Amino acid sequence: MSASSLPGLPSGQPRYLMVAQAIMSDIQSGQYPVGSMLPTEADFCRIYSVSRHTVREAIRRLAGLGMVSAQVGVGTMVKAHQPVSRYVQTAEGISDLFQYVREVDLRIVKRQEVIADKDLAALLSGKVGQKWHALMGERYVSGGSDPIALTTVYVAASYGQALDHIPGDSQPIYTIIERVCGVTLQEVRQEITAVTLDDASAKTLGVALGSPGLQVVRKYYSARNELFEVGINLHPAERFSHVSTLRLNGNLETQ
Amino acid sequence: MSASSLPGLPSGQPRYLMVAQAIMSDIQSGQYPVGSMLPTEADFCRIYSVSRHTVREAIRRLAGLGMVSAQVGVGTMVKAHQPVSRYVQTAEGISDLFQYVREVDLRIVKRQEVIADKDLAALLSGKVGQKWHALMGERYVSGGSDPIALTTVYVAASYGQALDHIPGDSQPIYTIIERVCGVTLQEVRQEITAVTLDDASAKTLGVALGSPGLQVVRKYYSARNELFEVGINLHPAERFSHVSTLRLNGNLETQ
DNA sequence: GAGTGGTCTAGACCACACA
DNA sequence: GTGTGGTCTAGACCACTCT
């Protein structure tokens, strides 16, 4: 219980917030352990003498913090005793990947089909012998002379048809695949590594031999959890850095 | 208008979703331009012949997609004609920064006060002559012998008292500052660059001279938008890469 | 004071999960 | 069948903004 001042005092804040705080406090005190079921909405109506709407609003806040999750016909389960995922990435989200691609021209210089050998299969999280389409190109800032990146894109063989639509628009390739092949992008995993540029790359990028470079590998997974595209971007360190922002997302009051 | 099939057919989905889709469609068609005010909730009740609760649920969904935002006493403004920020970063969010720090020991080797010269002021987005606390140290994977990073942390002078609490616990420094100084972390800006390690750093990190390194600079801003900490981490490329995941967050149906 | 979105109640019906 | 959360209605009062 620990009804926490329901009697009369509005105490300045909405009732559903008081209910949410009371429930959160009971979760944190261990009265509702992680993994257990919360009392039903009807129970909370009785416990706090509020309407079901108010209880639902309180629970919705807690769900927004990732602390509980509801399931029809079953109940509401406690998922965490602390708010999770308080921060979201705002810049350099996927829409900014989109932005990046719009401001940057990709010139494809080579396209071929490849059969994955051991190294490539490891990189693409696939099997040896699997067929992929490979695009190799250079990215230029609109109007710039030196490329800002050397790009290699691998597209799973079954989505190769999307590549015929590339020239027309300067959209990201994953967008084209989504549209043409009817697949939905669900997740992008990104890995950033520092490397020493090999001589050929350094020459193409127009930097001194032995210069450092930033390698960004992005893997695109569909809603069916299938890896359908892998992009490898090699940037000259002196002309590229990777910026992202994590912003406080929500506490109980502001969602 | 463009009421889109309200008459009788439930069409399998909740009414508020149909309303949300209808409004979204009218936003995208330009009937409700970005920057303009949406009709009032009462209007939508009449337009779609639904209760206010249903209208509010529809608008709440659109707000969740970042397309509209409501203001008491004023109205609901159209913010975008497409859902924004469909993806959130799940791994390498701030809780994972936390995780990272817990798995890694930070050995402080030097602590001093510094007065910002021109270069440092630029790095710290501060003014020349400003006073900062500087901590220099090395990060080790628990039990490892070679450091995984050389770290320099700058803390604004007014928060220096927090640094006296470092030895006890292996929490991130920003957490200590939050707790000791009563400030709230609001935003972290992160910049990743590839560099060539200078000889001293390469030697300390135990890698060959001239090896590439990954430099990660994180700036911590308070709720008052004050920069209170800057962390600079220099990693050997061969032992460190930066991984993050962006996951599809929400469409109209699933939030 | 008029109008807005924010909160709240009391009631209802539904699809779903589970025994 | 029973109970759960999900949806929906009709009404009410409030704090707030703008004029």
How would you describe what is shown here?
- The structure is a homodimer of 255-residue chains.
- Chain A is α+β, with helices and mostly antiparallel strands and 255 residues long.
- Chain A contains seven helices and ten strands.
- In chain A, helix 1 packs across helix 3 and helix 2 crosses helix 3.
- The two termini of chain A are 26 Å apart.
- Chains A and B meet through strand 3, strand 7, strand 8 and strand 10 of A and strand 3, strand 7, strand 8 and strand 10 of B.
- Strand 7 of chain A pairs antiparallel with strand 10 of chain B, so a sheet runs across the interface.
- The structure holds a DNA duplex (19 and 19 nucleotides).
Short description:
With 255 residues, chain A is of the alpha+beta class. Chain A has seven helices and ten strands.
Integer-rounded radius of gyration of chain A: 25 Å
Uncertain regions of chain A: pLDDT < 50 for 5+ in a row?
A: 1-9
SS-based class of chain A = alpha+beta
Anisotropy-based shape of chain A: elongated
**How is the largest sheet of chain A built, in terms of strand order?**
4-5-6-9-8-7
* Most extensive chain interface and residues per partner: A-B, 39 and 39 residues
